[in-house]
Amino acid sequence: MPESLSIIIKTFERPASLRNLLQSIRDQKLTYPILIADDSKVSSGAIIKKEFSDLSITYIDLPFDTGLSEGRNVLVNRVSTDFFLLCDDDYVFEERTDLKRAYYEICTNTLDLLGGEYYNYVNIPNLKVFVRQLTHPLRLKRFFLNQYKRSAYIGNFTIKGKDCELTVSYDPPSENISTCDLVNNFFIARVSAVKDMGGWDKELKMGEHEDFFLRAKQHGLKVAFLANFGTGHYPAIPIKNSAYNQYRVRAAHFKQLFVKKYDFNNYIEKEKNSGKILFVHSKTH
């Protein structure tokens, strides 16, 4: 197994999801250093470290609502290996989470960042959510059959003057490795490359994704997508979701801050195959 790789996890108000992720790491008998940054109101550090004492965990408690971006910066600055694997707390490792293969590919191809895809599963943690899902029969079918929906999310930026367009595809390519500008928030990256580009913008507590990869492009990072490499994704819906959601819904606000940061006249995100507009901002309207 590659020795120069650490797993970093930023968590916020989702201890049950974090446990599922750590259990999946344990089940795969992975021995990588694991760094967790937690900016929840109540830290789960003591419980997690006791429950998963067999894993090599460094648990970092941050001030409440430090934010996703700054939390990741703290983690990267604490990594002592050459590479890190970025994880959200609602992932679950499985047979396609082949870190040995991904590590080999990023080194062999001298890449700075190598991403994978999501295998999205439906999560129904309580009766209230189950009732809500009754209006989505396809989701219920996926839940009962334990089926997943693949999401590659590969993107490329086109910048012309003060206009920027991000074209994304959710379909996995046939090539083993595909160069691109943007991938999911599940990737292996060189610590030095991410530090050199300044990491994540701490002002963007959420909605940081496009900003991070746009700056990666501007700094010349070599980004690619690896086929058939990915993680199970169980979007968590906490039982007491109102407290969590009041922070989650801020993503749109921070997305607007990202656009204003670059002072684009026009910024468009669209889907490659359908041409569907996913997001648009124009100073002229």
Describe the structure in your own words:
The chain is an alpha/beta fold. It has a single domain (5-282), classed as Spore Coat Polysaccharide Biosynthesis Protein SpsA, Chain A, CATH 3.90.550.10. It is 33% helix and 28% strand. The protein has helices spanning 15-27, 45-51, 68-78, 99-108, 127-133, 137-145, 191-196, 209-218, 241-248, 251-262, and strands at 5-11, 34-38, 57-61, 83-88, 91-92, 113-120, 149-151, 154-160, 163-169, 177-180, 187-190, 223-233, 266-271, 277-282. The strands form two sheets. Strands 1, 2, 3, 4, 5, 6, 7, 10, 11 and 12 form a ten-stranded mixed sheet that branches. A four-stranded mixed sheet has the order 8-9-13-14, with no helix packed on it. The protein is globular. It starts with a strand and ends with a strand.
Helix content: 25-40%
CATH architecture: Alpha-Beta Complex
Low-confidence stretches: none
Taken in chain order, the helices and strands follow as EHEHEHEEHEHHEEEEEHHEHHEE
Distance between the termini: 54 Å
Number of strands: 14
CATH topology, anyone? Spore Coat Polysaccharide Biosynthesis Protein SpsA, Chain A
Instruction: Give the overall silhouette.
Output: globular
Please state the structural category: alpha/beta
Indicate the proportion of strand residues.
25-35%
How many individual domains? 1
Mean pLDDT: 89
CATH homology superfamily name: Spore Coat Polysaccharide Biosynthesis Protein SpsA, Chain A
Main beta sheet: 10 strands, mixed
Number of helices: 10
